[in-house]
Structures are given as structure tokens and as C-alpha cells.
Model the fold of this input.
Amino acid sequence: MFGKVFEKTRNPVHVVGLRPGILLPPPGVEDILHRAQVLVAGRRLLEAVPKLCAPDLCAPERTIPIAGPLSPILEDIAREREAGKRVVVLADGDPLFFGLGKRLIERLGAPAVHVHPNLCTLQMAAARVGLPWHGVRVVSLHGRDDYGPLYAALARFEHIAVFTDAENSPAAIAQALLERGVVDAALIVLENLGAPNETARRLRLEEAWDLPFADLNLVIVERLAPPEIPLMLGIPDHYYFHEKELITKQAVRATGLALLGVPPEATVWDMGSGCGSVAIEASHLAHEGRVYAIEKHARRAAMIRENVRRIGAWLVETITGEMPDALSALPDPDRIFIGGGLGQDTRPLAVACHRLKPGGRMVIHCILLDTLFRAKEYLHTHGWNYGITQLSASSTERLAGDLRLRAQNPVFIIWADKPGQPT
Done:
């Protein structure tokens, strides 16, 4: 309610941030630690408890190690609090900055959680290398295997701070970036921040991908140069490498993307991607999702990768292979664009319709009337809501010292919504 003062409920869970490296609590929490009956923390922080205060001043009845799935631990915390126990949770740095604080508030409610923040790792890292951190994008790979957020951030930000773990080490990050085709980037690796053996190194990707690193580290990915072509909607056709006019023209591309209605978190398939123009510009919209450009011809797939590199659309993953087989390993999409590759074979369309999530949308560009009729008949037979737009565009070209308008091939654009509610 507006105007209401934020007040904590009786017996809140106290979440205490420990300063990275030296693991010291912020001032004013000595009594909270002394009175704790249940202490919750990762094993490394639990081992540091004797350093926080004398054993007789911090002797909880029970400790709960944070290991494995978090949901059972949150339920355990809730039960202890409901039983009237004084629960203290220890965390690294600021518990509300990619920490446990968010999950605790979601489970218990903000009034039941009292956060005592400390310096966070990113603040300390930025101070060490002289980097204003308010413009740094933060990505967490801790406990994750999806590098999509890192690729998306690299398209938009000059500096990306990456929280790592044993699997997603600085070496693994360097290898992933190199395999994606990234060359104009470096890593700043900060190890053991705040501890006496703290180090900070700027490394080329090729240097970092086979080096050992300390378990406690933070990586800052530094973009060394802007993309050759800015990532945006409506990139001129001649900026794309393409083969034999096999490109979705700018005006048609803009209309197709508008009808596709790509939300930020969407997973997008661009089937029969050609030079990748639709996938690349869709990645500007789906900047928190995933974008796949599927192309059967190896030469065109190479052009997609080169266009991705020049434009810096690192979120786009190029899949080379025949449809529908090339679709089998991809996650189910929220949006599908089909610009080519249908031909006489309706199997790719059938698989696309089956895999599209309920409530998702598909857009098909058709130049041939047979393709239009087959797609329309398939959608009608399966009870999809759909519509058709016929687009004719002309663009200028020079002639006799003046300009004339040259007509492009008319295109039929089918949009269709899959029945059902989005999951």
C-alpha cells in the first residue's frame, strides 16, 4: 500500500553479508550473531564462523549447510522461523546482489527478511581495475549451463561481470567465446578478492582458455572494439553478406518481425535462415532469450556466422543441417519464422507446428503460390487462427542521373497463432 512504512515482522530472518576475502560481517550485527539459534550458510562460510566471533559468543543450536537444491533449505528455514527460532543466514557480500536474499524474500516475504549488506564482489573488482561499475552488465553462470545471457550481453555492453563456478571457470568462458567466434574481447580475471593473495590479470582469450585459476574468482569480459555494424532493426540489405539475392529484404523483414511480435525472453527459430538477417534482428528483440538460425547449406551458414560476427549478434546460434532433423536438439520455440526451405516437403512445417509452444506465433514468408496454399491449408486443417498480408515494396535505384522505383517481388506473409495458453 502506498504511504505505508516498511516494517519488519516479529522474529525476521537476518541475512548477514560477509566481506569478500576476509569474510568479516558489517558493523552492528554482533548481537544478531551472538543470539542466533539456527545458522545457515555455505560450508566455506560456516568454517569461517569461529573467525567472526569467539565460540562462546556464536554457538547456534543448529547449523544448516547450503548444499544441493535450494528449495528444501528454504523450507527448512521457514519451519525454524515459524517455530520461533532466531535464524541467521550468512552470505557473500550483498545478499541481494545475485545472492540468497532474493529467494528468501520470495519464500518468506520482504517483511520477514532483514538484510545486512556488505561490499559486494563487483564493487571490489571495479575498484581494483578502476572501472565505474554502474554501467557493467552482470551475468551469473554459477550453477548454470546456458551461456546465452553472456552472448546477449556482449552485443550490448562493453563490460560484463561474470559470476563463475568450478565448471564455468575463466578458462571455460574463454573457450566458449572463442568457439562462438568472438575475437575482439579480453578477460579481466580477479582471484581471491579481498584476501592477502588477491590477484587481477587482463588476459587475451587465447591465453586464458587453458590456464588454471583459483576457485574464488570473478571474470570481467571486456569488449575491445565495437561491432563493425550496430545491431538494430532495419539493417540495410547491402550490409549483409548474402548469396544470389537470398535475403529477406528490409521492408519485408521489418513487417515479418512486427507480425512475429518477439518478446525479450523468447526462444526464436529462423528456419531456412539464408544469410541470417531475420535471426540477427530478432536477437535485438529477444535479448533475454535464445535465437537459432537453421540453414542446410554450409556456404550460407558460413555467411550467417560472418554476419553475426560483423554485427556482434552473438546470441544467434547457427545450426547447419537438413530440416526437420536439424530441429530435434533445439529447445521448443515461442516464435518461429519460416523464410525458406518449405518447398514440396511439409514435414518441416508439421514439426515446427508441433514444437511451437501453445500460444506461440509463427510467421511464414511465401513467394510461390503453391507454398502459400500448402501452408494455408495446413493451418486451416489444424484449427489455427491465422491471417495473410500481401506486401509489395519498391526501392529507388539510379537511372539517367535521377532515381526510379524498382519493384521487388511481392511476398505473402502468413501469421498464425498456435491454440492454447502460453506456458
Q: What stands out?
A: The chain has 14 helices and 19 strands. The radius of gyration is 27 Å. The first helix runs from residue 30 to 35.
